[in-house]
Specification:
CTP synthase activity, Rossmann fold, nine-stranded mixed sheet, 23 strands, nucleotide-binding
Length: 630
Amino acid sequence: MRICEFALPLFPLASSPTMTKYILVSGGVISGIGKGVIASSTGLLLKSYGLRVTAIKIDPYLNIDAGTLSPLDHGEVFVLDDGGEVDLDLGNYERFLDVTLTRDNNITTGKVYRQVIEKERRGDYLGKTVQVVPHITDAIQDWVERVASVAVDASGQAPDVCIVELGGTVGDIESAPFVEAMRQFQFRVGHDNFALIHVSLVPVVGSVGEQKTKPTQASIRDLRGAGLSPDVIACRSSKPLAEGVKEKISMFCHVSPEQVLAVHDCSSVYHVPLLMEQQGLLRVFEKRLKLRELLEARMAREGADVVQHEAKALWAKWHQLTTRQVRLHDTVSIALVGKYTDLHDSYISVTKSLEHAALSVNRKLQILWVEASDLELSTKESNPIKYHECWRRLCAAQGILVPGGFGERGTEGKIMAAKWARENKIPYLGICLGMQVAVIEFARHVVGLPEAHSEEFAPKSPDQVIMYMPEITKEQLGGTMRLGSRASVFDDSHLQQAKNGNPSVIQALYGNEPMVLERHRHRYEVNPAYIDKIEAKGLYFVGKDETGQRMEVVELPSAVHPFYVGAQYHPEYKTRPLKPSPPFLGLVLASAGLLGEWKKQNMQQGKMSPSVVPLGRYNSELDLKALADK
């Protein structure tokens, strides 16, 4: 295993305070070419170097936040601990960097203009004419500088480096104020504290597959025309750059060859940090931003051994992750039953959670996408081929997952999927709406309430087993749901007292913690009036909020079903490549037939050989000891 050569430079320690370094990631030619992954990968490399890293995403749209955007229009809405509804790229940052961000880490045009207009209304500008320059641009710079100093991990220490991703492409009208703000910002913080990565597309044209550099040249020209010069040009392409293309970009874009990175399509996004490290990205930034001074300061504060071990262990685990991804042959298939399946980015945190869980148990993930509405009888009449094809995929899956969503379309299809999983003992995980449809299905077909439904979809139903939360307003949509990190308290006493009962499997997956904190995003919940009826028939609510009134986790006994779990919260928002989310880990273990082995390992914890890598983890104790000894 090759450890990142820059993880542990040997030099005298210093304790002088240093200024935060900023790396701006901009894009050209087209949007959606991977700026978020490149920004996250850069941050990961800096962490493997030994620095603390935070990240900011700038979205030039006028929305205050992403909460009211359709997933089909903008991809998934990612939810943070503080309840912020933000762009999905912040999910990439949290997963790659293992940090906890806030709503302020996502800047939008709407937020900035609202802040400036509120100041103007209060009279803060003392009668001056409020303009884009300097008032909007100053507000953007102040925002970036303030957020960059906020701690994002358990250490409570301010970050050493802040990655700032500018959404869209350079030259867009809506991003012009942000580009100008960053042009000014480079002088505010100083040359040694500001660097720029420009991500551009190198398209392949013609039958011979020639790679064209003109779009990149034009993009760099636009960037320089706006007053910014790239320190690194990340060239996105479908295949590795041909010989001479890198030199051509270097020559015509006025940068050295080592400042041109070829970032071609990889088998997974987890290989991108390795690809960038191999091409010397850290060497460029070590020289350009004087990173050694930052590392010296941190090692002086926290101890060289601690920083070195942390950096080495991170890079070693990441290598193990990518090696598994390439070498795995055994697969596990999960049917994802949703209503936004036309755009897979709508469920990016869900798919990443499944991927992380599968890799941690040495399985290659196969997602079978199932459009929920195509499972319904109306599709059988209008398009029988599509209907039978969707049911074929559902029936072929080793496990079934129903994620969250809003709106009535596809609800009956999701209920049918939950029924199929329950009756045929197929491992099932329901998230948010997925838990609610599992409760509705059980109420209809087991409890004996054929008209059971949700107030969201059938407000006149006599048995609304899912109801609108009383404290939530119905007048305004944006930012009015039950959002952010909330406590779920486990109590499996009813489950254990049941006939053929057992301790909660989902609680065991969480390490038998009495309480967990997970992120929420919902307006509806299980109606407490039906809890006793449902539990009397064998579906148990093993997790509740701190008041005991709000149902958070539902579970069938192991004697009845191998794995049938629903969670009102969204565990996918806290998954990490090296630390899979427990509910997703449980689904994948059960689907792969490994849950029994995992339980056995869990019971023998502390008694296993130190050379054994337990299911769901990456390094054995001997691996980490060897790293520390090195």
